[in-house]
Amino acid sequence: MSERLLIELSKKGRRAYRFPLLDLPRGFEDTVPAFPSTLQRKTEARLPEVSELDVVRHFTRLSNLAYGVDDGIYPLGSCTMKYNPKVSESIAKMPSFTQIHPLQDTTSTQGCLSLMYNLLEDLSAITGMSWGTLQGCAGAHGEYTGLKIIRSWFLHHGQPERNTVLVPESAHGTNPASAAMNGFKVRVVKSDARGLVDLDDLASRLDGSVAALMLTNPNTLGLFEKDILKIADMVHKDGAKLYYDGANLNAIMGMATIGDMGFDVLHLNLHKTFATPHGGGGPGAGPVLVTETLRPYLPKPDIVLTDNTYSFDWSGNESIGKISMFWGNFLVLVRAYVYILRMGSEGLKAASEHAVLNANYLLSKLKDIFEIPYGDRCMHEFVASCQKLKEQYGISALDISKALIERGYHPPTMYFPSLVHEALMFEPTESESMETLDKLAETIGDIVKKGIADPAWIHGCPHNMVVGRLDEVKAIKEPNLRY
Amino acid sequence: MMKAIGIESLEELYGDLGEDILLTDSVPINRGRSEDEVIRMLESIGSRNERGIPFLGAGCYDHIIPSTVDAIASLPSFVTSYTPYQAEMSQGMLQVLYEFQSMICQLTGMDVSNASLYDGANALVEAANICLTHERDKHVVLVSPTIHPFALDVLETWASGTDRKLVVLPEKNGMCDLGSIEKMFDGEVGGVLLQSPNRYGFLEDYNGVADIIHAQGALMCISADPMSLGLQKSQREWGADIAVGDTQPFGIPLSFGGPGCGYLAVTESLLRKVPGRIVGATTDETGRRGFVLTFQAREQHIKRERATSNVCTNSTLAALMTTVYLSLVGWDGVKEAARQCYMKSHYLAENLSELGGVELAWDNPFWCEFPLRFHDAKRMRKFIQELRNEHIFAGVRLQALTRRREDELVLLVSVTEKRSREEMEDYLAAARRMVR
């Protein structure tokens, strides 16, 4: 059943919530200067007028029309949709965290500060970096911050001409967009036949104008850039910096550090690797970590520990400054810290191993159904292609995805990376059991068979949801963006 | 599983990691702990925070949050879902965001809202971006000196290392001085960023300002606490092109300042310049109404370096909290809460200014927050400490935000509808003991 808009259920005068009555001394209100009429609002806002039960039912029904990790497997490549532990949720709701104001004197927020400090220590250890900031609110925000740090370093070192950022063909869209937001030009580095950075192409682009090369490792094809030390050497010899996009860290926690691979700056997505919920698209957290050389450029304020007391340090002259309103998405940080405490060093390593195992297992189950253009081994995710199915039977990556929806599964990432035609990118994560993966593979096999036999069925999927495939062209031609 | 893959050990899966990078030891963090142990640890960490009655604001406000907000924002299919790319199985969250966008448009009077940004400061950054990209060859943004100090910091970071330039307008008596704004324009100014209530809590008057800005071909952006829009003119009524702010006052707890929820809404002509997600209504083949992420050609995953912004993850779950909050209280509730903020803050301000030893820093209209000026620093410290002994956080030291000497004696005091009469009387009683 579709759900009407709450405003459509509105009935004049109905109220779900009433504020306590104003309890100021009698007559006081008459003495208060009236709100200046020149500043006074003249128009009304149209908001729902409903009962509390109307609100509860409306949003509960809407939640029934949503799908989360708690509903089932979510093999969305590059998004790391792992299980979000309930203990993190309940701890993040403790009033001793939720009712703390960001501008209380730091002597009254030692709990919050110690948590942030210890989280930064752990993240530094896990990634092999020197120190970092927790102010970033999302992965892209971290990228923006990391590149700002690099830009600032070059300006301080008299190299303003380093105004280009290199990204591989398979990079996440946020990489080039974050570079552009920092005023950098973007150049694309080719991938070779292996699906890895083309070293010759990279060499030809390192011409003294490059500020940084941004890499995800493993890359978005799910392949480990095994030339990484060589790449780091090439980049550093040219005088440029190497940036690590932490979107795919879930493959290698505890197996290798980002520092050992030669990266200078990185961001993490706590809402991916560190099991904080995605919340339907946020809020997340995008901490940035750097090597010792770049440490002075981190955003302000730093968190410091002196004589057993934590405080903010605003003194850094080379700091790029603030990047968000207060100190970062604190409640997301709480959840990530709880996750790290629960897992510990051996748990994080096991999580990565099982994420890689699960991906390879699913790959082994699907390799007879789809083409796997970059080999039958992967890290934590892999990319399959529906190109042959499309050519032979007219079954596209979109068809497979929509049929999966009909069968109650969230689809993999579609049409990314663009290197692969009709791409489906699977990332099962460590959270799923073998039985779940078997069932998913079986369902996909079944979908393909049925789709070949009955093309009309698969092109019309999903048939059983609240809506069928929606007219996206109409959404743009006749914009309807509010009630 | 290993048999199916054709391996004999898990190590084989890491064959591409050379010996020179494979770790031989575990990373230097602690071993895992039981759930119970972690709960105890976190309770202990939490207990190192001191809780008090916050008369603290400066961008983060302690308002009443109806219980229903958290109940709905905890529903697992919302909490554990991803960005709603797959529309058919994400209608619930898409519709929430459509309702959120609608409510933001209703409050601000604007035509188009996005589906949230990280926070109010980053919404200002995105607004500044729009100012510099809506026409060619714009490099300068004029900024009010009275926007939140941290928001100004974030804007300065955004401009640094690029060819963008921020020019801060003059300040007069705690207000942005717009008297000579006309002289500030050259061909390179793309827009003007203003804020009301401003960093001191004062309500600024923008009568006639939009015409001046528009005559110069620039855009006008006003940042506003959305609850203040229950009383003061909406951004649209001032003639602004861009409305921004943070919806934290609507249903989002203090949480040490994050997550918040940035909002950004524009006039129709700027639709294609909007950063981030936008949800639109459309239909399926059988004519049923449904919601999709739309105008995606603006976004990073399609346009890459030519996108309107790099934003991907936003603050959806916080936007849901605001949507539920506004659904519960309605427009009458917003107006009532805004009115109570006005009354209560004036009650406290008036009683404090009668004490002697402190005064309102300037005589300007304010809404839920006001700047109290002390005569000397020692007394101010003592005042804050004395109230803290009574478990009251007296206010935010402006200098803690600006790190400017001239702000040393100013305390920003915020009084929301949540502050009871008793709490205010306790504040006043402690203050009376101090200010003599």
The protein's oligomeric status is heterodimer
CATH superfamily of the largest domain in chain B: Type I PLP-dependent aspartate aminotransferase-like (Major domain)
Give Rg of chain B in angstroms. Answer: 25 Å
Order of helices and strands of chain A: HHHHHEHEHEHEHEEEEEHEHHEEHHH
Overview in brief:
The complex is a heterodimer of chains A (483) and B (436). Chain A is α/β, with parallel strands linked by helices and 483 residues long. Chain A contains 15 helices and 12 strands.
Give a structural overview.
The complex is a heterodimer of chains A (483) and B (436). Chain A is built from 15 helices and twelve strands. Chain A is of the alpha/beta class and 483 residues long. In chain A, the strands form three sheets. In chain A, strands 1-7-6-5-4-2-3 form a seven-stranded mixed beta sheet, sandwiched between helices. In chain A, strands 10-12-11 form a three-stranded antiparallel beta sheet, covered by helices on one side. In chain A, strands 8-9 form a two-stranded antiparallel ribbon. By secondary structure, chain B is of the alpha/beta class. Chain B contains 14 helices and 17 strands. A seven-stranded mixed beta sheet of chain B has the order 2-10-9-8-7-3-4, sandwiched between helices. Chains A and B meet through helix 1, helix 2, helix 3, helix 4 and helix 5 of A and helix 1, helix 2, helix 3, helix 4 and helix 5 of B.
State the main characteristics.
heterodimer; A: 483 residues; alpha/beta; Aspartate Aminotransferase, domain 2; seven-stranded mixed β-sheet; 15 helices; globular; B: 436 residues; Aspartate Aminotransferase, domain 1; 2 domains; four-stranded antiparallel β-sheet; 14 helices
